[in-house]
């Protein structure tokens, strides 16, 4: 089992902070030694080493009664480090030198000696100046170092700095402690927020998500998580509803296919069992078989057409047609169908003949589906009216209106769903449940739309709208 620390954002932040702190310290130390150190024979020393060496050289030299004495160890150190030295009396005249370059003079004025002590790197050396403090007579000396060393002096108010030093150290330590506490507190707070986000994402996948309050610095992220959860839940709900409808539809269409096949099989067996059937009986059985075969064929065609429309693979060949003439012919064909004998079907048009670009075969299927749907699912005395009109922009409006049973709001919202068959399928089980969905897809393919208005006990009206860009007055 893996340690929880591997997944704890606070632990990771503390680790990253520690690494960053160590990296900062290492970088600072590196920069310090890069800027404030020089190489010398014994290794690396800080840049103030030449001044310290110059000050300490006085322990190897004495100047009494005009006589200068230098211990051999001092000269050995000069040789070891590659340095030179020059001793001067109180007038600035050289009294002794060792390995001094020829470019340096033998006598200095007081101002020149002072300037030499503060001068920078020149002639291959940086020169430091000191004096023999224990001598009764003034004796100065200069030591040249083969290093490019900067000489800068900081001036400040000594009394104030000395008083502030303890307080400054306390303030710095307190500020550093406060900074560390603040960073750790912020890191802990941030880790909790990140943990909430991580937990939220995990809970969304497990469907156990609880909405987070959309405020604070992470309000946008919480809002996105809440929206994602709502969208996923909604998509899951739609998927479940669609799957339920699909199962119901498959069960219904399976039953619908078996319904016409049963009489086909039964009457075929009757014909096969006896050869002495009367001609009238044979014709009656044959007509029943043919009727059910046609019904089965229509179901199969509906299935094929709806999936062709859904996949966009159906041939679509729009051309200019006279809309009033064509619709009138389609309605006459429906009225002449023996299935709808004695039904009250009326057609009217409020517009003169008009040419519209559409696929006449597909569009006829859409109009026929709406009209036959109104005839099929209403009582025999229901009147179905088909009316052609135009909208304010010249677009075509085709209305299919009946005074039948009407539809409730839940049914209206789902009429054009592919698997939905409504609440009256037990009364009229012959339908495939695809007629209105097919009509809607065909009209959409033509750039139009279908709307429905219905009231229970009053009737239903379907309106097909074809945009004006497809319409023009006929000659």
Identify the notable features of this structure and list them briefly.
single chain, alpha+beta, 11 helices, 475 residues
Structure description:
With about 475 residues, this protein is of the alpha+beta class. The protein is built from eleven helices and 16 strands. It has helices spanning about 10-35, 50-55, 70-80, 110-120, 160-205, 220-275, 280-310, 325-335, 360-375, 410-415, 435-445; strands at about 35-40, 45, 60-65, 65-70, 85-90, 95-100, 125-130, 140-145, 320, 345-350, 355-360, 385-390, 395-400, 450-455, 460-465, 470-475. A five-stranded mixed β-sheet has the order 10-12-13-15-14, covered by helices on one side. A four-stranded antiparallel β-sheet has the order 6-5-8-7, sandwiched between helices. Strands 9-11-16 form a three-stranded antiparallel β-sheet. Strand 12 (about 385-390) and strand 13 (about 395-400) form a beta hairpin. The longest helix has about 55 residues, at about 220-275. The model is unreliable at about 1-5 and about 425-430 (pLDDT under 50).
